[in-house]
Amino acid sequence: MRRRALSLALLPLWLACSAGRTPEPEPYPIVPPQPFAGSGAPSSIQKWAAAMQPKPVVDFFAGLFGRVGVRVSDTGEAFTAVHAGNRILFSDELDEAAVDFTVSIDSAQVDRMLGYMKAGELSERARFRIMAVIATPATRALLARPVIRSERLRELLYWIGDADERTQVVLIPPAGEAEVGHTIERHGAVTTVTAGLHGTVERVYRLSVDDAVEFQRRMIAARSADSLWTWLQFARWYGEMTARVAVPPSDAGVAVPGATDRL
What we know:
Radius of gyration: 20 Å
Order of helices and strands: HHHEEEEHHHEEEEHHE
Strand content: 15-25%
Shape: globular
Mean pLDDT: 77
Strand order of the largest sheet: 7-6-5-8-9
Helix content: 40-55%
Structural class: alpha+beta
Number of domains: 2
Distance between the termini: 53 Å
């Protein structure tokens, strides 16, 4: 009886959510780049296309993105990586509206990242550095393009997840690495994500790399399914996760504003 009453209470919210969904952009065809076979140095996209195929690497990135844009600041290159399940494909085109998020790195970071993958697997330090680079832009992009247009449903999910108006998140580093973090602030229907810790909060969320990976996978999965049930599940999991990782600000440590030098 209670389940039926809850279903009836949530029905208007579900209808509002369904009616207000933001349509996903039409994907453009992915054409894998040709293997490097010439003289001189290969491009960043050719390096990545060759290095990101070992199964442990493909498995780590599974669920972290469907499509991710990459900009190489010092060479002007821009391309798209697409997770195809058992491999990662690349296109030398980048449409910002058709990717989950975009990261900006330089060619030295490209080479360091590829160095992590030479053994066909990612160490704890490599996984931290990768998440330090993608966590902030990924969170910003996912929250800046809300699928849920219903204000009532958003407020319900925030209540279930016990979400704060201002949230500070710190990524816990392995030995020898500096902490990184970002601040999430809600202003009605608008959410901003800024590198570093800003403002005053009652609690700070300290996430391990595994926590950060699971958060991103669950967020992207919820956006992809875009159903009332999956959003409710995500909100419930989020509340449980934040209760587990929350600490007083005095115990949070200091996060470095910006993390792109960590890769």
